[in-house]
Amino acid sequence: MEIDHVVLAARGKTEAEEVLDQAGLGVARGRTLPGLGLSNLVVPLRHGQILEVHYPNGETPAADAPPLLRFDTDALDTHPAHTLIPMAWLVVIEDAARLRDLAAAHDMSVIEAPAEGPEFPPYTLAGFGANFERRFLPCLIHWPQGQPVLDAPHRRRPLGITGIDVAGPVGTIEDWCGGEPDGLRTLPGTSGPVRVTVGFAEGPPVTFGLPE
């Protein structure tokens, strides 16, 4: 069971691009996230895995928007010396029926999201919102047409997410996902994702997030 992608918070686009470039990673695409007060950068890794970086864009969130901007701002204010702080993670479920079974068993919401352009196909998302209170829980995602195939000007070839540290109870996470996600290491507490490590074909891995 693989991690699909990890969402990280940044203070701004320039800072995020600088940190990614230092790691040897390029950006495939970015867009404004409607109504959230956030924009994003999408960094493809391998086999559809991505890092998604959120940063404030100066717009006021819609009155009924989920509190993603506040979550990001609070984390960055709490850790002023650090950049690209993991905020959320998603686990891919290959079988659509399995995703819906897990959603029903755990009273998860299910969202059918449309394509975001020709290179970013539609997807089914379960658990969004439930992970606001229990930040250690991932969203579950299914790609009925396959995961995105994106290119980016990387200076080093990423091998994908090799590990994620999450402060949360391992049994609850495994029950929620229907198994143990690859690369998961749980830590004491319930605050959620703490750091994520990306491996490369050339040179050492890079860890984004808070130091150990």
From TrEMBL:
<dbReference type="Pfam" id="PF13468">
    <property type="entry name" value="Glyoxalase_3"/>
</dbReference>
<feature type="domain" description="Glyoxalase-like">
    <location>
        <begin position="3"/>
        <end position="169"/>
    </location>
</feature>
<protein>
    <recommendedName>
        <fullName>Glyoxalase-like domain-containing protein</fullName>
    </recommendedName>
</protein>
<dbReference type="InterPro" id="IPR025870">
    <property type="entry name" value="Glyoxalase-like_dom"/>
</dbReference>
